[in-house]
Amino acid sequence: MYQYRQVLVRMRQGDSDRAIARSRLMGRKKVAQLRALAQERGWLAPAAALPEDAMLATLFPRREGLPSQCVSSLEPWRAQIMAWREEGIQGTTIHTALVRRYGYTGSYSAVHRFLKSLPSAAPEVPLRLHFKPGEAAQVDFGAGPVITDVHTGETFKTWVFVMTLCWSRHQYAEVVRHQNIATWLACHRHAFEAFGGVVGRVIIDNPKCAITKACLYDPKVQRSYADCAEGYAFRVEPCPPRDPQKKGIVEAGVKYVKGAFLPLREFRSLADANRQLADWVRDEAGQRCHGTTREPPLAQFLGAERALLQPLPATPPVLAVWAKVKVHRDAHVQFAQCLYSVPFRLVGQTLWLKASDTLIRLYQDHEPVACHPRQTRPGDRVT
């Protein structure tokens, strides 16, 4: 149901039905249906609370899809259809040709669905897009340096998170120890707090990285990220590697940090690495003449873009991680090596778990079934 909440947020921000459908959150007909219901119930008012998942699940029950073993009736002509698609032939013309040449008896809708299921064609020319101040930021995430902490002697791998404002090219960068959703969400919070505001949309770069790939394809991560986006009122936009309209918007953030910041530096600890990185962003990366804008990013940010960012929420939103968990025979579920109880009637079932820094909430079909204080020591049990 989080997709419906994302669409409602976009409607509040003024997005048209066509623009929402292009994001592939849902089709035009479903968007129009949701907008009509939202207007009727007052959900689009800025101060109104968004409906709970349970209400949305009741209003929009999930339809069972086709079994995974079902094969499209168009599969025998896949190669021919792909060739026609590459030539730019429209779907209606393809349907007519299939009927005329091969005696195809299916509907045009079947052809339309089959065309949508085909992989996108590779782009020929990447296009640079233009942005207004405060409109968007691009996030990148990739492998960082191996650091040996001089205080503990521990050696560990790191990752680098970079958020680049698309208009000014000013950046926030952070070295972290984990590539997981909790770290990903925390880095977004740190970036917005460093900028003093929030952009209208966040574009995900580097879809090959595990966490950014999960943001596109893993429902658990998508749900966690959607909650963060809703709390800060930004929209999430993937940057598909095959989409010429969206690729190459700004420089690859992590690649730039690796090439210009990391070489010939030594780090005594994670905190030391982040102190050096913050100084470099402010004093070097922020002061350079940017190759595209021909202006210093930090001056552009301070002079124009910062004032046009959306304000930070009065109360910072709770950043939570969603996970699917199975109820054990002792009526407990396990999360992060800790155990939490649920009603015995749920033994053997799979539940949704929502973990914030302080609370664990468990849901069955969008209905809450248990709530516990979050434990931190492995092996802890709450009954």
Largest sheet: 5 strands, mixed
Which CATH architecture of the largest domain would you pick? 2-Layer Sandwich
- Category from helices, strands and their pairing: alpha+beta
Domain module count: 4
Strand content: 15-25%
Coarse morphology: globular
Q: Can you walk through the features of this model?
A:
The model has no long low-confidence stretch (mean pLDDT about 85). This protein has 4 domains: about 1-60; about 75-115; about 135-310, Ribonuclease H-like superfamily/Ribonuclease H (Nucleotidyltransferase, domain 5, 2-Layer Sandwich); about 320-380, no CATH class. With about 375 residues, the chain is an alpha+beta fold. Helix 1 runs parallel beside helix 10 (about 220-230), helix 6 (about 90-100) packs across helix 7 (about 110-115) and helix 9 (about 210-215) crosses helix 10 (about 220-230). Strand 2 and strand 3 (about 155) form a beta hairpin. Strands 5-4-1-6-7 form a 5-stranded mixed β-sheet, sandwiched between helices. Strands 8-11-12-13 form a 4-stranded antiparallel β-sheet. Strands 9-10-14 form a 3-stranded mixed β-sheet, with no helix packed on it. The radius of gyration is 24 Å and the shape is globular. It has 13 helices and 14 strands.
